[in-house]
Design goal:
The complex is a heterodimer. By secondary structure, chain A is α/β, with parallel strands linked by helices. Chain A is built from twelve helices and eight strands. In chain A, strand 6 and strand 7 form a beta hairpin. By secondary structure, chain B is an alpha/beta fold. Chain B has one domain. Chain B is built from four helices and four strands, in the order E-H-E-H-E-H-E-H. Chain B starts with 11 loop residues before the first strand and ends in a 10-residue tail after the last helix. The chains are: A alpha/beta, B alpha/beta.
Protein backbone atom coordinates (compact mmCIF):
# COMPACT_ATOMS: atom_id res chain seq x y z
CA UNK A 1 0.00 0.00 0.00
CA UNK A 2 1.46 3.35 -0.98
CA UNK A 3 1.07 6.69 0.80
CA UNK A 4 -1.64 7.88 -1.56
CA UNK A 5 -3.76 4.80 -0.89
CA UNK A 6 -3.26 5.22 2.86
CA UNK A 7 -4.34 8.86 2.64
CA UNK A 8 -7.43 8.26 0.52
CA UNK A 9 -8.56 5.37 2.72
CA UNK A 10 -8.20 7.48 5.86
CA UNK A 11 -10.00 10.42 4.29
CA UNK A 12 -12.79 8.23 2.89
CA UNK A 13 -13.25 6.58 6.30
CA UNK A 14 -13.42 9.95 8.03
CA UNK A 15 -15.95 11.32 5.52
CA UNK A 16 -18.17 8.24 5.79
CA UNK A 17 -17.92 7.88 9.57
CA UNK A 18 -18.70 11.55 10.15
CA UNK A 19 -21.62 11.32 7.70
CA UNK A 20 -20.15 14.06 5.53
CA UNK A 21 -20.75 11.96 2.42
CA UNK A 22 -23.27 9.23 1.57
CA UNK A 23 -21.11 7.49 -0.95
CA UNK A 24 -17.48 7.35 -2.00
CA UNK A 25 -16.64 6.41 -5.57
CA UNK A 26 -13.17 5.08 -6.16
CA UNK A 27 -11.14 2.26 -7.66
CA UNK A 28 -10.77 -1.32 -6.40
CA UNK A 29 -8.64 -4.24 -7.59
CA UNK A 30 -10.10 -5.73 -10.75
CA UNK A 31 -10.71 -9.40 -11.41
CA UNK A 32 -7.97 -9.47 -14.05
CA UNK A 33 -4.29 -8.64 -13.52
CA UNK A 34 -3.29 -5.01 -14.14
CA UNK A 35 -6.94 -3.96 -14.13
CA UNK A 36 -9.05 -2.01 -11.67
CA UNK A 37 -12.80 -1.55 -11.41
CA UNK A 38 -14.90 1.28 -10.01
CA UNK A 39 -16.15 0.72 -6.45
CA UNK A 40 -19.03 2.37 -4.62
CA UNK A 41 -18.50 2.54 -0.88
CA UNK A 42 -21.20 3.60 1.55
CA UNK A 43 -19.74 2.39 4.86
CA UNK A 44 -16.49 3.24 6.63
CA UNK A 45 -15.74 -0.46 7.11
CA UNK A 46 -15.25 -1.02 3.40
CA UNK A 47 -12.61 1.63 2.70
CA UNK A 48 -9.83 -0.96 2.55
CA UNK A 49 -11.08 -1.88 -0.90
CA UNK A 50 -9.85 1.45 -2.27
CA UNK A 51 -6.72 1.40 -4.38
CA UNK A 52 -4.91 3.88 -6.56
CA UNK A 53 -2.18 2.90 -9.00
CA UNK A 54 -1.17 3.03 -12.66
CA UNK A 55 -3.96 0.62 -13.60
CA UNK A 56 -6.78 3.03 -12.70
CA UNK A 57 -8.15 3.86 -16.13
CA UNK A 58 -11.76 4.97 -15.84
CA UNK A 59 -12.77 8.57 -15.46
CA UNK A 60 -15.03 8.32 -12.39
CA UNK A 61 -16.89 11.59 -13.04
CA UNK A 62 -19.55 9.77 -15.09
CA UNK A 63 -20.52 7.70 -12.02
CA UNK A 64 -20.76 10.85 -9.88
CA UNK A 65 -23.14 12.28 -12.44
CA UNK A 66 -25.19 9.07 -12.60
CA UNK A 67 -25.48 8.78 -8.79
CA UNK A 68 -26.55 12.40 -8.35
CA UNK A 69 -28.94 12.45 -11.31
CA UNK A 70 -30.64 9.34 -10.00
CA UNK A 71 -30.96 10.99 -6.59
CA UNK A 72 -32.35 14.22 -8.08
CA UNK A 73 -34.98 12.26 -9.99
CA UNK A 74 -35.96 10.32 -6.87
CA UNK A 75 -36.36 13.62 -4.98
CA UNK A 76 -38.62 15.21 -7.59
CA UNK A 77 -41.84 13.91 -6.01
CA UNK A 78 -40.77 14.46 -2.41
CA UNK A 79 -42.40 17.27 -0.35
CA UNK A 80 -40.05 20.29 -0.05
CA UNK A 81 -39.65 19.88 3.73
CA UNK A 82 -38.67 16.21 3.33
CA UNK A 83 -36.13 16.69 0.55
CA UNK A 84 -32.70 15.27 1.31
CA UNK A 85 -29.34 16.16 -0.10
CA UNK A 86 -27.00 13.43 -1.17
CA UNK A 87 -23.27 14.07 -1.09
CA UNK A 88 -20.92 11.98 -3.18
CA UNK A 89 -17.21 11.71 -2.51
CA UNK A 90 -14.99 10.87 -5.43
CA UNK A 91 -11.37 9.90 -5.88
CA UNK A 92 -10.36 12.42 -8.54
CA UNK A 93 -7.16 12.76 -10.51
CA UNK A 94 -6.51 15.54 -13.05
CA UNK A 95 -8.87 14.49 -15.83
CA UNK A 96 -11.63 13.38 -13.45
CA UNK A 97 -11.52 16.75 -11.70
CA UNK A 98 -11.75 18.54 -15.05
CA UNK A 99 -14.84 16.50 -15.90
CA UNK A 100 -16.34 17.47 -12.55
CA UNK A 101 -15.68 21.12 -13.42
CA UNK A 102 -17.53 20.65 -16.72
CA UNK A 103 -20.50 19.12 -14.88
CA UNK A 104 -20.51 22.06 -12.45
CA UNK A 105 -20.31 24.58 -15.29
CA UNK A 106 -23.20 22.87 -17.02
CA UNK A 107 -25.17 22.97 -13.76
CA UNK A 108 -25.63 19.24 -13.43
CA UNK A 109 -25.22 19.39 -9.65
CA UNK A 110 -24.04 21.79 -6.97
CA UNK A 111 -20.52 22.12 -5.66
CA UNK A 112 -21.71 21.15 -2.16
CA UNK A 113 -23.07 17.87 -3.51
CA UNK A 114 -19.58 16.56 -4.21
CA UNK A 115 -16.48 16.09 -2.10
CA UNK A 116 -13.37 15.83 -4.21
CA UNK A 117 -10.60 13.63 -2.84
CA UNK A 118 -7.76 14.70 -5.05
CA UNK A 119 -4.99 12.29 -6.05
CA UNK A 120 -1.86 12.97 -8.05
CA UNK A 121 -1.61 10.89 -11.21
CA UNK A 122 1.27 10.23 -13.54
CA UNK A 123 -0.72 8.26 -16.08
CA UNK A 124 -2.29 4.87 -16.60
CA UNK A 125 -1.33 1.77 -18.56
CA UNK A 126 -2.87 1.46 -22.01
CA UNK A 127 -4.22 -2.02 -22.67
CA UNK A 128 -3.47 -1.78 -26.39
CA UNK A 129 0.16 -0.84 -25.86
CA UNK A 130 0.51 -3.58 -23.27
CA UNK A 131 -0.95 -6.15 -25.66
CA UNK A 132 1.47 -5.00 -28.33
CA UNK A 133 4.47 -5.40 -26.01
CA UNK A 134 3.39 -8.86 -24.92
CA UNK A 135 2.43 -10.04 -28.45
CA UNK A 136 -1.20 -10.33 -27.46
CA UNK A 137 -0.56 -13.20 -25.06
CA UNK A 138 -2.93 -13.59 -22.14
CA UNK A 139 -1.65 -11.80 -19.06
CA UNK A 140 -1.77 -14.11 -16.04
CA UNK A 141 -0.19 -11.80 -13.50
CA UNK A 142 1.32 -8.35 -13.34
CA UNK A 143 2.57 -5.70 -11.00
CA UNK A 144 3.80 -2.14 -11.11
CA UNK A 145 6.76 -1.11 -9.00
CA UNK A 146 7.88 2.47 -9.45
CA UNK A 147 8.85 2.84 -13.10
CA UNK A 148 8.87 -0.86 -13.89
CA UNK A 149 5.93 -2.96 -14.99
CA UNK A 150 6.33 -6.71 -14.62
CA UNK A 151 4.02 -8.70 -16.84
CA UNK A 152 3.70 -12.45 -16.64
CA UNK A 153 2.18 -14.24 -19.63
CA UNK A 154 2.03 -17.87 -20.71
CA UNK A 155 5.17 -17.17 -22.78
CA UNK A 156 7.22 -15.87 -19.88
CA UNK A 157 7.85 -12.80 -17.77
CA UNK A 158 8.60 -9.41 -19.30
CA UNK A 159 9.83 -6.29 -17.57
CA UNK A 160 8.73 -3.04 -19.18
CA UNK A 161 9.38 0.63 -18.53
CA UNK A 162 6.20 2.36 -17.35
CA UNK A 163 6.60 5.15 -19.94
CA UNK A 164 6.54 2.60 -22.77
CA UNK A 165 3.03 1.45 -21.92
CA UNK A 166 1.41 4.68 -20.65
CA UNK A 167 -1.65 5.79 -22.61
CA UNK A 168 -1.05 8.42 -25.30
CA UNK A 169 -3.20 11.00 -23.54
CA UNK A 170 -1.24 10.57 -20.28
CA UNK A 171 2.08 11.22 -22.03
CA UNK A 172 0.89 14.67 -23.12
CA UNK A 173 -1.06 15.50 -19.96
CA UNK A 174 0.12 18.39 -17.80
CA UNK A 175 -2.78 18.09 -15.34
CA UNK A 176 -1.08 15.63 -13.01
CA UNK A 177 -2.75 17.21 -10.00
CA UNK A 178 -6.51 17.81 -9.80
CA UNK A 179 -7.79 21.29 -10.73
CA UNK A 180 -10.30 21.29 -7.84
CA UNK A 181 -10.08 19.32 -4.60
CA UNK A 182 -11.34 19.38 -1.04
CA UNK A 183 -8.63 17.06 0.18
CA UNK A 184 -5.28 16.34 -1.39
CA UNK A 185 -3.70 12.91 -1.01
CA UNK A 186 -0.37 14.17 -2.26
CA UNK A 187 1.17 16.23 -5.00
CA UNK A 188 3.59 15.56 -7.81
CA UNK A 189 5.31 17.98 -10.17
CA UNK A 190 3.55 18.46 -13.52
CA UNK A 191 4.91 16.31 -16.31
CA UNK A 192 7.31 17.92 -18.72
CA UNK A 193 5.23 16.75 -21.63
CA UNK A 194 5.64 16.61 -25.37
CA UNK A 195 3.58 18.79 -27.74
CA UNK A 196 0.05 17.51 -27.29
CA UNK A 197 -1.02 18.48 -30.81
CA UNK A 198 1.93 16.96 -32.69
CA UNK A 199 -0.24 14.05 -33.83
CA UNK A 200 -3.00 16.41 -35.01
CA UNK A 201 -0.57 18.52 -37.03
CA UNK A 202 0.91 15.43 -38.58
CA UNK A 203 -2.53 14.15 -39.60
CA UNK A 204 -3.67 17.55 -40.89
CA UNK A 205 -0.59 17.68 -43.14
CA UNK A 206 -1.85 14.65 -45.10
CA UNK A 207 -3.93 15.20 -48.22
CA UNK A 208 -7.73 15.35 -48.01
CA UNK A 209 -8.16 11.94 -49.61
CA UNK A 210 -5.57 10.34 -47.33
CA UNK A 211 -7.36 11.79 -44.31
CA UNK A 212 -10.71 10.57 -45.58
CA UNK A 213 -9.31 7.10 -46.30
CA UNK A 214 -7.98 6.86 -42.76
CA UNK A 215 -11.19 8.18 -41.21
CA UNK A 216 -13.50 5.92 -43.20
CA UNK A 217 -11.29 2.88 -42.62
CA UNK A 218 -11.27 3.48 -38.85
CA UNK A 219 -15.02 4.10 -38.77
CA UNK A 220 -15.69 0.92 -40.74
CA UNK A 221 -14.43 -0.95 -37.69
CA UNK A 222 -17.06 0.69 -35.46
CA UNK A 223 -19.92 -1.63 -34.53
CA UNK A 224 -21.82 1.12 -32.72
CA UNK A 225 -21.74 -0.62 -29.34
CA UNK A 226 -21.80 2.95 -27.89
CA UNK A 227 -19.16 2.04 -25.28
CA UNK A 228 -17.34 5.31 -26.08
CA UNK A 229 -20.49 7.28 -25.40
CA UNK A 230 -21.40 5.36 -22.25
CA UNK A 231 -18.00 5.81 -20.61
CA UNK A 232 -17.61 9.46 -21.58
CA UNK A 233 -18.17 11.84 -18.63
CA UNK A 234 -19.29 14.59 -21.01
CA UNK A 235 -21.87 12.29 -22.68
CA UNK A 236 -24.40 12.32 -19.87
CA UNK A 237 -27.63 13.12 -21.77
CA UNK A 238 -30.57 11.01 -20.64
CA UNK A 239 -31.61 10.54 -24.26
CA UNK A 240 -29.02 10.57 -27.01
CA UNK A 241 -29.39 11.54 -30.67
CA UNK A 242 -27.99 8.13 -31.56
CA UNK A 243 -31.16 6.41 -30.37
CA UNK A 244 -33.65 9.03 -31.48
CA UNK A 245 -36.12 7.79 -34.08
CA UNK A 246 -37.99 10.99 -34.90
CA UNK A 247 -35.99 12.27 -36.65
CA UNK A 248 -33.75 9.30 -37.11
CA UNK A 249 -30.36 11.01 -37.04
CA UNK A 250 -28.43 7.76 -37.17
CA UNK A 251 -29.84 4.87 -39.16
CA UNK A 252 -30.23 1.56 -37.37
CA UNK A 253 -28.63 -0.58 -40.07
CA UNK A 254 -25.02 -1.51 -40.71
CA UNK A 255 -24.40 1.20 -43.29
CA UNK A 256 -20.83 2.56 -42.94
CA UNK A 257 -22.14 6.07 -43.52
CA UNK A 258 -24.21 5.85 -40.33
CA UNK A 259 -21.08 4.90 -38.36
CA UNK A 260 -19.35 7.96 -39.75
CA UNK A 261 -22.26 10.26 -38.98
CA UNK A 262 -22.59 8.89 -35.45
CA UNK A 263 -18.91 9.39 -34.72
CA UNK A 264 -18.73 12.83 -36.34
CA UNK A 265 -21.65 14.08 -34.30
CA UNK A 266 -20.62 12.47 -31.03
CA UNK A 267 -17.18 13.96 -31.39
CA UNK A 268 -18.60 17.31 -32.40
CA UNK A 269 -20.56 17.35 -29.14
CA UNK A 270 -17.16 17.17 -27.43
CA UNK A 271 -16.06 20.54 -28.81
CA UNK A 272 -14.68 22.43 -25.81
CA UNK A 273 -15.85 19.64 -23.47
CA UNK A 274 -13.35 16.83 -24.00
CA UNK A 275 -10.84 16.57 -21.15
CA UNK A 276 -8.71 14.02 -23.00
CA UNK A 277 -9.10 11.34 -20.31
CA UNK A 278 -8.74 8.65 -22.97
CA UNK A 279 -11.65 6.59 -21.64
CA UNK A 280 -13.29 6.26 -25.07
CA UNK A 281 -10.08 4.90 -26.57
CA UNK A 282 -9.60 2.59 -23.61
CA UNK A 283 -13.06 0.99 -23.87
CA UNK A 284 -13.21 0.76 -27.67
CA UNK A 285 -13.52 -2.93 -28.49
CA UNK A 286 -12.23 -2.32 -32.01
CA UNK A 287 -9.23 -0.24 -30.98
CA UNK A 288 -10.27 2.88 -32.88
CA UNK A 289 -8.03 5.84 -32.09
CA UNK A 290 -10.81 8.36 -31.47
CA UNK A 291 -8.32 10.63 -29.76
CA UNK A 292 -6.74 11.53 -33.08
CA UNK A 293 -9.97 13.28 -34.06
CA UNK A 294 -11.01 14.59 -30.64
CA UNK A 295 -7.66 16.34 -30.24
CA UNK A 296 -8.45 18.44 -33.31
CA UNK A 297 -11.45 19.97 -31.53
CA UNK A 298 -9.26 20.56 -28.49
CA UNK A 299 -6.68 22.30 -30.66
CA UNK A 300 -9.31 24.57 -32.25
CA UNK A 301 -10.72 25.33 -28.83
CA UNK A 302 -7.32 26.49 -27.70
CA UNK A 303 -6.22 28.28 -30.87
CA UNK A 304 -9.50 30.01 -31.73
CA UNK A 305 -10.93 30.77 -28.29
CA UNK A 306 -8.03 30.34 -25.86
CA UNK A 307 -10.07 27.88 -23.81
CA UNK A 308 -9.14 24.57 -22.25
CA UNK A 309 -11.94 22.21 -21.26
CA UNK A 310 -12.68 21.98 -17.55
CA UNK A 311 -9.65 23.85 -16.28
CA UNK A 312 -11.30 26.97 -14.84
CA UNK A 313 -14.63 26.86 -13.09
CA UNK A 314 -15.57 30.45 -13.98
CA UNK A 315 -14.64 30.24 -17.66
CA UNK A 316 -17.68 29.44 -19.84
CA UNK A 317 -17.48 26.74 -22.49
CA UNK A 318 -16.70 28.04 -25.99
CA UNK A 319 -20.06 27.05 -27.47
CA UNK A 320 -22.01 28.70 -24.65
CA UNK A 321 -20.36 32.06 -25.16
CA UNK A 322 -19.05 34.36 -27.89
CA UNK A 323 -17.01 37.46 -28.48
CA UNK A 324 -17.89 40.15 -31.01
CA UNK A 325 -14.47 39.85 -32.63
CA UNK A 326 -14.26 36.04 -32.87
CA UNK A 327 -12.13 35.00 -35.77
CA UNK A 328 -14.16 34.38 -38.94
CA UNK A 329 -11.58 33.58 -41.58
CA UNK A 330 -13.75 30.66 -42.73
CA UNK A 331 -16.59 33.00 -43.79
CA UNK A 332 -16.90 33.11 -47.57
CA UNK A 333 -17.06 36.46 -49.35
CA UNK A 334 -17.93 36.58 -53.07
CA UNK A 335 -15.63 38.59 -55.32
CA UNK B 1 -24.77 7.24 -62.21
CA UNK B 2 -25.53 7.17 -65.91
CA UNK B 3 -25.12 10.93 -66.37
CA UNK B 4 -21.90 12.19 -67.87
CA UNK B 5 -19.91 14.93 -66.18
CA UNK B 6 -21.10 17.54 -68.69
CA UNK B 7 -24.72 16.91 -67.81
CA UNK B 8 -24.06 16.72 -64.11
CA UNK B 9 -25.48 19.57 -62.09
CA UNK B 10 -24.70 19.84 -58.39
CA UNK B 11 -27.37 19.81 -55.72
CA UNK B 12 -26.73 22.47 -53.13
CA UNK B 13 -28.65 22.79 -49.89
CA UNK B 14 -28.78 26.31 -48.52
CA UNK B 15 -29.70 26.70 -44.86
CA UNK B 16 -30.68 30.34 -44.50
CA UNK B 17 -31.91 32.68 -41.82
CA UNK B 18 -35.45 33.99 -42.13
CA UNK B 19 -34.60 37.62 -41.36
CA UNK B 20 -31.61 38.34 -43.57
CA UNK B 21 -30.57 35.85 -46.18
CA UNK B 22 -34.08 34.66 -47.02
CA UNK B 23 -35.14 38.28 -47.44
CA UNK B 24 -31.97 38.83 -49.48
CA UNK B 25 -32.98 35.95 -51.74
CA UNK B 26 -36.43 37.54 -52.03
CA UNK B 27 -34.85 40.81 -53.07
CA UNK B 28 -32.72 39.00 -55.66
CA UNK B 29 -35.95 37.55 -57.06
CA UNK B 30 -37.83 40.86 -57.04
CA UNK B 31 -34.86 42.54 -58.72
CA UNK B 32 -34.95 39.79 -61.38
CA UNK B 33 -31.32 38.84 -60.80
CA UNK B 34 -30.24 35.60 -62.43
CA UNK B 35 -28.51 32.88 -60.44
CA UNK B 36 -28.07 29.12 -61.00
CA UNK B 37 -31.06 26.93 -60.10
CA UNK B 38 -28.90 24.36 -58.27
CA UNK B 39 -29.65 25.69 -54.84
CA UNK B 40 -32.49 24.54 -52.58
CA UNK B 41 -33.27 27.07 -49.89
CA UNK B 42 -34.33 25.91 -46.45
CA UNK B 43 -35.63 28.74 -44.31
CA UNK B 44 -34.85 28.65 -40.61
CA UNK B 45 -35.68 31.16 -37.87
CA UNK B 46 -32.03 32.09 -37.27
CA UNK B 47 -28.56 30.83 -38.16
CA UNK B 48 -28.29 30.03 -34.45
CA UNK B 49 -31.13 27.57 -34.96
CA UNK B 50 -29.09 25.55 -37.45
CA UNK B 51 -28.24 22.27 -35.82
CA UNK B 52 -24.82 21.21 -37.12
CA UNK B 53 -26.57 17.91 -37.71
CA UNK B 54 -28.52 19.45 -40.60
CA UNK B 55 -25.26 20.05 -42.43
CA UNK B 56 -23.90 16.57 -41.80
CA UNK B 57 -27.22 14.93 -42.71
CA UNK B 58 -27.49 16.96 -45.93
CA UNK B 59 -24.04 15.69 -46.93
CA UNK B 60 -25.01 12.14 -45.93
CA UNK B 61 -28.15 12.20 -48.05
CA UNK B 62 -26.50 13.33 -51.24
CA UNK B 63 -26.06 17.11 -51.18
CA UNK B 64 -22.99 18.03 -53.21
CA UNK B 65 -22.59 21.20 -51.24
CA UNK B 66 -24.09 22.91 -48.20
CA UNK B 67 -24.33 26.67 -47.93
CA UNK B 68 -25.10 28.25 -44.58
CA UNK B 69 -26.00 31.90 -44.45
CA UNK B 70 -27.29 34.29 -41.82
CA UNK B 71 -27.25 37.94 -40.78
CA UNK B 72 -23.98 39.83 -40.52
CA UNK B 73 -22.50 39.84 -37.00
CA UNK B 74 -24.21 42.53 -34.98
CA UNK B 75 -27.38 42.46 -37.10
CA UNK B 76 -29.04 39.36 -35.68
CA UNK B 77 -32.79 39.64 -35.15
CA UNK B 78 -32.26 37.73 -31.90
CA UNK B 79 -29.22 39.86 -30.90
CA UNK B 80 -26.59 37.13 -30.70
CA UNK B 81 -27.87 34.03 -32.54
CA UNK B 82 -25.37 34.34 -35.36
CA UNK B 83 -22.46 34.96 -32.97
CA UNK B 84 -23.20 31.70 -31.15
CA UNK B 85 -23.60 30.00 -34.54
CA UNK B 86 -20.29 31.37 -35.79
CA UNK B 87 -18.38 29.41 -33.14
CA UNK B 88 -20.29 26.21 -33.91
CA UNK B 89 -19.58 26.59 -37.62
CA UNK B 90 -15.90 27.33 -37.04
CA UNK B 91 -15.54 24.05 -35.12
CA UNK B 92 -17.62 22.07 -37.61
CA UNK B 93 -15.96 23.49 -40.70
CA UNK B 94 -12.47 22.71 -39.41
CA UNK B 95 -13.51 19.29 -38.14
CA UNK B 96 -15.19 18.18 -41.39
CA UNK B 97 -12.15 19.27 -43.35
CA UNK B 98 -9.87 17.53 -40.87
CA UNK B 99 -11.58 14.16 -41.43
CA UNK B 100 -11.25 14.64 -45.17
CA UNK B 101 -14.44 16.32 -46.46
CA UNK B 102 -13.41 18.81 -49.17
CA UNK B 103 -13.24 22.37 -47.83
CA UNK B 104 -15.58 23.75 -50.52
CA UNK B 105 -18.43 21.34 -49.72
CA UNK B 106 -19.47 23.38 -46.71
CA UNK B 107 -19.59 27.13 -47.15
CA UNK B 108 -20.57 29.74 -44.60
CA UNK B 109 -21.42 33.32 -45.41
CA UNK B 110 -23.38 36.37 -44.26
CA UNK B 111 -25.99 37.98 -46.54
CA UNK B 112 -28.25 40.76 -45.27
CA UNK B 113 -31.80 41.57 -46.43
CA UNK B 114 -30.59 44.43 -48.63
CA UNK B 115 -27.90 42.39 -50.37
CA UNK B 116 -29.90 40.79 -53.18
CA UNK B 117 -26.99 41.19 -55.58
CA UNK B 118 -24.58 39.63 -53.08
CA UNK B 119 -26.93 36.68 -52.69
CA UNK B 120 -26.93 36.11 -56.46
CA UNK B 121 -23.13 36.36 -56.58
CA UNK B 122 -22.75 33.96 -53.65
CA UNK B 123 -24.93 31.36 -55.38
CA UNK B 124 -23.00 31.85 -58.65
CA UNK B 125 -19.64 31.33 -57.01
CA UNK B 126 -20.70 28.53 -54.69
CA UNK B 127 -22.22 26.62 -57.60
CA UNK B 128 -19.00 27.07 -59.59
CA UNK B 129 -16.90 25.88 -56.63
CA UNK B 130 -19.02 22.78 -56.08
CA UNK B 131 -19.12 22.02 -59.82
CA UNK B 132 -15.34 22.13 -59.85
CA UNK B 133 -15.25 19.54 -57.06
CA UNK B 134 -17.55 17.13 -58.87
CA UNK B 135 -20.21 14.90 -57.29
CA UNK B 136 -19.85 14.24 -53.55
CA UNK B 137 -18.44 10.81 -52.71
CA UNK B 138 -17.67 11.11 -49.01
CA UNK B 139 -20.03 10.52 -46.09
CA UNK B 140 -22.77 9.58 -48.59
CA UNK B 141 -25.23 6.87 -47.66
CA UNK B 142 -25.51 4.24 -50.39
CA UNK B 143 -27.60 1.10 -50.18
Amino acid sequence: MNDIEKNIREEAKRLLDENLVDLVIGYQEGTLPLQTAPVFISSGDEVDKLVFNSCCKQNLAIYVHAALKQHHQAQERVKPEDKKQKVVGVIARGCTSRSLVIHLQEQQYLREEIVVIGVPCSGYIDKNKLAEKTDGAEIVAGSVDGDTVTVETAKGTTKLKLDEVLAGNCLTCAYNNPVISDFSAGEIPARDCADEFAEVDEFAALSESERWDYFSREMNKCMRCFACRNICPSCYCASCFAEQSQPEWVGAGINPSDNQVFQVMRMFHMAGRCVDCGSCVEVCAEGIDLRKFLKKLDQDDQNLYGHKAGVKLDEPSPLASFRENDRETFIFEPE
Amino acid sequence: MSQTTEEWEPKIVALVCNWCTYAGADLAGISRLQYPPNVRLIRLPCSGRINPFYIVKALQHGADGVLVSGCHPGECHYISGNLIARRKFAFLNNFLNYIGIEADRTIFTWVSASEGDKFARVIDEVTAKVKALGPATRLIKTD
